[in-house]
Amino acid sequence: MSNDIFEQKNRFLDQVLAERRTYRLFSPVIPSDEEIRRILHAGLVAPFAATSVGTPKDYFRRFFVIRNGSESIRALHPLLMAEVNALAADLDSAMKDDPKLRADALLFTRRLERIRKLGTIPGIGTAPLYLIAAERRGYPPVGLQSLAHCMENMWLKATALGLGFQPVSLTSRMADNEGFCAILGIQAGEWDLAGCAVGYPQEELSPAIRPPVEDLIRWLE
Known about the structure:
Layout: H1 3-19, H2 33-44, E1 61-67, H3 71-95, H4 99-104, H5 106-118, E2 129-136, H6 143-160, E3 164-167, H7 178-184, E4 191-199
Helix pairs in contact: 2-6, 3-5
């Protein structure tokens, strides 16, 4: 393969990496099934925890596509909100006797309070699609790291397709929730979960600002 092709590939990749952003405002237009399949295929080929791999008929990684306004999203939303309330209560209790935690978690607690007041999970109901990736748990327990690779691949593919992407981090806390997992058709406690919202962006975001990489490198001898 010629150097020109490698250089072209790198230019395209650098462009996608630079354009990858978190979107929070989405058009109501639903992406095509083919676009979603391409995003999920990118997640499928992401690195994984080899100890969790099952058989081809019982594969270690699965995906769930949930449309806004569907019966499934209406069933999942109150379970997610209940988890937000439980998380806020647990954090509030833990902060009472821990000044450092109070300081460190200040912005996060404010975010939880906004979610509770609005009664809406960011990305759930605000984007056309809620995508969930599941990875079978194994040992050592590195499923969440594998799902981070999966989400990154999906994020980059969505960016390349001109679609907006918003992580729904609360999804990972639902892996042991029997009601949530029953809706997905999986066994609670057997899978790690990660989720995101996807749709056409309603706004164009400016490029992210980062310091020069050389300022952050330490070359060791």
